[in-house]
Amino acid sequence: MCLFLTHVDNNCSINNKIISDVFSENGLGVSYSHSHICALKNSSVIMNCTYTYPTGHQIKKVFWAKNPVKGEVHPDLSEDPEYSQRLQYLGDKQQNCTIRLSHVTQKDAHVYCFRFITDKPDGIWIGRPGVTLTVTDLQVESPERVTEGDSVRLTCKSSCALTDGATFIWYRNSQLLTKGTTENKLILSQVRREDKGNYKCAVHGHNHTSTTVYLNVTYPPKSVSVSISPSGEIVEGDSVTLSCSSDSNPPAEISWFKGRTFVGSGKIYSISKISSDHSGEYKCKSINEHGEKYSAAVTLNVMYPPRSVAVSIIHYCQFWEGGSVTLMCSSDSNPPALNFSWFKENQSSAVGSGQSFSALQSGRFYCEAHNQHGSQRSGVVTVIVKGQINICP
Prior knowledge:
Elements: E1 4-8, E2 14-18, H1 19-26, E3 29-32, E4 36-40, E5 45-47, E6 49-52, E7 59-66, E8 87-89, E9 99-101, E10 111-118, E11 124-128, E12 131-136, E13 139-141, E14 145-147, E15 152-157, E16 168-172, E17 175-181, E18 185-188, E19 197-203, E20 213-229, E21 234-235, E22 240-249, E23 253-258, E24 261-265, E25 268-271, E26 280-288, E27 291-294, E28 298-300, E29 302-318, E30 323-334, E31 339-344, E32 352-353, E33 356-359, E34 363-371, E35 374-377, E36 381-383
Parallel strand pairs: 4-12, 14-20, 21-29
Antiparallel strand pairs: 1-2, 1-11, 3-6, 5-9, 7-10, 8-9, 10-11, 10-12, 13-15, 15-18, 16-17, 16-19, 19-20, 20-22, 22-25, 23-24, 23-26, 26-27, 26-28, 29-30, 30-33, 31-32, 31-34, 34-35, 34-36
């Protein structure tokens, strides 16, 4: 309710009169539904207003002005370029003086008063003190960082209490989180890592949203695993990279172990020109301020061709008509060599196959071991077969 109606004469002199007296005596008055309005930025504001004037007066002009000052002329806002496209008079020239102001911003925070002019010489009037408009933005207040399992409260704040009964809406990562509540708080009990993200609030019925706030949820390492590249068969001499992945916040520090032996740190563990000595089980450990976790072990199985090929005599036997010597070919390889060839020195073709070979004649012999990655021959051994009449054990 406006408590004063100010009469302005043609020379802009001002006389204040108490409405209750003037109304009862002269039938003059301006009434506002709200003396203070708190509106959301970019919203539309309706200032409900009614007025009365004495019998015998005829309304010539009705309009609104802002920030009325004694002794000054108050321009019609509908003729102001800043308002002309946004201000709509919803009233009439009888008793309704309601207006709508659209797309309000902080620059629209003023005192607004209704004015009317009648056909009488002293019929220039302004309703004081008018409507004080405050324009507010929305901001989300939240803790900077929370730990998984904590209870979290986010508050949708404004600089003044919104005049309209506000219903609040919450978004996470631009996805609707709640449909609407009269409470301006969002409670997350037992917060999870999935709750991290960008949060903002809005008021139902308004397009304007608050600034975005990032909720940072910290938690210990989880889902720790190791991947090997290349993922196929690894052959001696290859370059191999082990990568440790870990879901954690803050990011975890990574350590590498072969068996129980520490071998390196960092998310990537690289081995150039890998050898059989690198074969074994590897795992990584992920650790941050909230805890630690090991990955499952992965096995590096390095393939290589035969090496350290050697011949040994495993059996000596003598017969009635002669004797024989059984030779065994051994090698170090991965996968184990399954193919063996036997040669007699100075002969180009093999004289036998298989891991063991029985030499029936004296001579110099060697073996050759094979797998899919290569082959290697042994050194030469001298075999002497004695012809005696004995029986083999």
